[in-house]
Design a protein that fits this description.
4-stranded antiparallel beta sheet, alpha+beta, Immunoglobulin-like, 2 domains, 5-stranded antiparallel beta sheet, 226 residues, rod-shaped
Amino acid sequence: MAEDPAAANAAAQPNATTPDRRFFWLTVFEYVLIATVTIIFVLTIVLKLNNLGDLADMETARGLITFVITVGTVAIAIMLALTAVLIRDFDKRLVVGKEILTTLIAVLGTIVGFYYGAATKVAEANAGTKPTISVAAPTLNRASDGSLTLTANITGGAPQYTYSIKYSPETIKPVENQTTAGPISAKIELPNPAPTEITVFIQVKDKNGAELTPSKEGIKLPVPQK
């Protein structure tokens, strides 16, 4: 006599009134997962934030919120997915799985869109902002041996810098394509007869290509006497 497939399937399924150990371990796993996520949140806040005032910084707050939502969403999705796997009825299991997938995609899609949208705006803002390069007022210094040195300091932009210096009168030898992390020191050989004043034109370019061009008037400096 052939065995009824429906009866065999019913016999294979656990009785609804029989305690199922799987659900006990599922509950244990869920509590462990919740505790783990909580510990991660606490450690992140303690180690990454020096004080709550750091949350006033937009980038810090955005990163923390994104982290919390992402980890929380994934943790909830794992718990729901395990619950769906342990549901006895296959049709219900499939429906619950689809609902979990739809919810997860919607939430994570929002997070990813927010994160990359913010990153794009920051990149565009940075691309439209040219770093400001400035040169501290140069000075002429005469050493005890009578030699003359031009000193200055470059700030702003992105070091290393490449600089060139031209002088007026043009009989003074210019300085071409020298590199520095900021300080400028250039020896000057004055023509004979020596002028009482020289004009300095300093051109600077940083490693990213941002450039400081001298004004047409240049910087007039008195020549210290011996």
